[in-house]
Give the backbone structure.
Amino acid sequence: MVIPKGRIFSNVVKLLNDSGISIDSERRMYFPRIGDPEIEAKILKPQNIACLVELGSHDIGFTGYDWIIETNSQVAEIMDLKLDPVEIVAAVPFSLEESGLRNREIIVASEYENISRRFLKKENYNFMLIRTYGASEAYPPEDADMVIDNISTGNTLKDHSLRVIAKIMNSSTRFIVNKKSLEDKWKREKIEELKMLFEGVINARERVILEMNVPPEKLEKLVFTLPCMRAPTVSTLYRDMGYAVKVAVKKGEILKLIPKLKQMGATDILECELKKVII
């Protein structure tokens, strides 16, 4: 397993830890200790991970979709983990008119050489590309007319007096696999186990458990209105004093759902976090 350094490192490590695959990431090391004895891990830059997984140096890894496209790596994408989402955009200084960029050769700064060239050729720009190694936003206006970079909020571009003129693609962290590794029965089963665990953690992050007590005469109407994955769990309270109802719901529904349940007669409502949801 190859784990990315830099911006997406912490969320990948949290996903592994939440999945039960403990990783010692406290010390600076390229070969961290993994709680699963069947996995060996190495930490490398995300820019190189897709290529190395394609070559078979590693069976599995995590990297941004942008680097899969940039390096044209032929890997199997097992999951979009939807972690650290960004947009790849073209941006120019506020002082430059977009129309003026079409009348001359422009200098473009980007760490995405292939993505940039494809975009600029498609848009018929006359350009010279400067390959950067981070901090592309620092190049304009003295050293570049345009940058092609990834953004999450866009605040960094604004802080450098840059405005977005085109959105090129979206990217997020992907779980990728060497295609030949999938031909190995043991490795394929292990990869499928990891995928199940990752899906369980991601599903759990989107949901909470609601537990409540409900009077007998209120049960049918209340249960009928409950959003749930399949059906709520209903059990009888001590001495038939009503029912205990348990249901997993999406976090976005909680704000309106709890007051509604209270109005419908539910009492003693508990909201609990989940660790994994295996559907």
Remarks:
- The chain has three domains: 2-82+173-203, 86-170, 207-273.
